[in-house]
Every structure is written in C-alpha cells, then in structure tokens.
Amino acid sequence: MNNAEKIALLEGLLFLVGDEGIMLDEICEVLELEPQEVTLLLTELEEEYQNNTRRGFIITKFAKKYRLTTKKEYYSFYLKLANNKFESKLSQAALETLAIIAYRGPISKPEIEDLRGVNSDNVIHKLKARELIKEVGKSEIAGKPMNYQVTEEFLKVFKLSSLSELPELQEAKLEDDEELFK
C-alpha cells in the first residue's frame, strides 16, 4: 500500500468515526501500521487540510482522540445550513432524547443511552446544534461525562414558560400492570 492510499484510508477512517474521534492506537490497529508512521500520516494530512483553501476540514485532537472538524472560518456558512434544518421536524429519536433531557436533566449521555438503549451521539449533536440542549457541567458518574439540560430555546420552540408546564409523566406501577405479565 502506497502513502497516498494510507492517507486516503486515514481520511476515510476519521470521517467514519465522526464526532466521537479515534485514538492513535485504534488507528494503528485498523490500518495495521506503527504509531510513528500513523503520526507522520496524520501530520501530512493535517498540513494538507491547513494549507489548502479548497478543503473545508481540519484534524483536531481532543482527549487523545483525533477527528475531522470543519474550519472555523467557514462557520457562518455552516450556520446557515443548520438554521435551515431547524425548520425541519425533529426525528423520533430526537424527540425521545429531548424528552429524557427535559424530564430528567441535567443528565449525562451514558444515562440517556441507558434509558434509550441506543447510541445517542448524533442526536445529542443535532439537538445541541439546534440549541435545544446545552452542556451544564460534568456528571459524578464514572468517567465524568458531560451533563445536558434543555435551553430557553427549547422552552420557546415548545411554547413553555418553564419546565413545570410539561405534562406529568405517568409512572408505571407494577401492581396496576400485573395483568400485563400474566
């Protein structure tokens, strides 16, 4: 495999992992390369993105993970797209996640995923982009993940003056539902 193919594979891998990012050792394992070689490839790709005005991405490193992100200088254009998408309806997954955050917030992503039973990375990202939820500090659970709660924009969109106006949840009572389990 030549260098150009390795860089193409690396770029595809970074695109595939999205916001979650990927650690150096994971890249090495997937591409079957040594850390020094992967570091050189990352540097080469970073320089290509940085020095090429025809590219809209950069590679960022956070918490020992690498990911592709959009260039900040184009943010105003990306915001236009995001604003257009705000007018679209929320998906079932987004509504489900939003309800969990509204009723249980502040709540962490692992707690949300535990309740939903599925990965919620993309949904949380989209809800943050729509400014319906925000980060509000670290959780006390293992790993100290970020906590989320709904925003004033959420209240505005759903025409609420406060969260106390949310309909009450009906708690499932085992005694009342015993017939369901017979």
From TrEMBL:
Keyword Transit peptide applies: no
Keyword Transmembrane: no
GO cellular component, one term: cytoplasm
Pfam family, one: SMC_ScpB
Main location: cytoplasm
Cellular compartments annotated: Cytoplasm
Origin: domain of life: Bacteria
One GO term of the biological process aspect: DNA replication
The protein's assembly and partners: Homodimer. Homodimerization may be required to stabilize the binding of ScpA to the Smc head domains. Component of a cohesin-like complex composed of ScpA, ScpB and the Smc homodimer, in which ScpA and ScpB bind to the head domain of Smc. The presence of the three proteins is required for the association of the complex with DNA.
Similarity field: Belongs to the ScpB family.
NCBIfam families noted in UniProt: SMC-Scp complex subunit ScpB
Primary role: Participates in chromosomal partition during cell division. May act via the formation of a condensin-like complex containing Smc and ScpA that pull DNA away from mid-cell into both cell halves.
The protein's name: Segregation and condensation protein B
Species for this entry: Spiroplasma syrphidicola EA-1
Annotated gene: scpB
